[in-house]
Specification:
By secondary structure, this protein is of the alpha/beta class. It has a single domain, classed as Alpha-Beta Barrel (TIM Barrel), CATH 3.20.20.140. The protein contains 9 helices and 6 strands. A 6-stranded parallel beta sheet has the order 1-2-3-4-5-6, sandwiched between helices. It is globular. The termini are far apart.
Length: 204
């Protein structure tokens, strides 16, 4: 894990957050230090988003702490009016309950989304400013290949998840083929989506 420095982030588009997997590897004191660092980055306006943060039920031993940290990230994102990048593993019902109890005030981007069409519809019904990001799953999941054309283009992002063996152009190509649209049109739509959630950072 690398702490992002203010100098490194100036003039770039970055998010920062505490991944739920880290809770097994770092002490509470170390996590608190990271929280201070993320908050400093937000205060210094070095971030366009908060996260990746979320809930991963494959790690039940840290679930309570995951929930605590997710709500901390959410408060930070809403205080600074920044989008959130969401880690969601076997926790769709948790996020639906959170949305019902306290509707989000900023866009939520579900990173490497692996849910189904019903979950997509439920999420968008409760929080229309939700987005679903896809990467390698377009190649390795038939469920995602079938799901992709059912999601409005205005709610989609594509990603490599910083995996060096992935080429973002190839991901765009696969997505455009599956959705049935021109790749340049798809790229233009992704840019429109990005501008929509970062209006204060990008000139229209």
């Amino acid at each position: 894990m690398e702490e992002l420095t203010l100098q490194k982030l100036k003039g770039t588009y970055n998010t920062a957050g505490i991944h739920p997997w880290w809770l097994e590897d770092f002490t509470r004191a170390e996590i608190m230090k990271l929280q201070d660092h993320v908050m400093k980055l937000a205060r210094e306006k070095c971030l366009w988003g908060i996260g990746e943060t979320g809930i991963d039920r494959t790690y039940p031993e840290t679930l309570e702490y995951q929930m605590e940290l997710f709500h901390w990230h959410r408060e930070l994102a809403e205080d600074f009016n920044l989008p959130m990048v969401i880690h969601n593993v076997r926790s769709g019902a948790d996020f639906l309950n959170i949305m019902k109890k306290n509707p989000p005030k900023v866009p939520w981007i579900f990173h490497d989304f692996r849910g189904n069409e019903e979950l997509v519809k439920d999420i968008l019904r409760l929080h229309p400013e939700s987005y679903f990001s896809f990467g390698i799953s377009i190649d390795n999941s038939s469920q995602i290949r079938d799901l992709l054309p059912t999601i409005p283009l205005s709610q989609i992002f594509l990603e490599t998840d910083s995996q060096k063996h992935l080429d973002i152009h190839e991901i765009y190509l696969r997505a455009s083929e599956k959705i049935g649209i021109d790749i340049d049109f798809l790229k233009s739509q992704m840019w429109i989506n990005f501008k929509r959630i970062t209006p204060n950072l990008i000139s229209q």
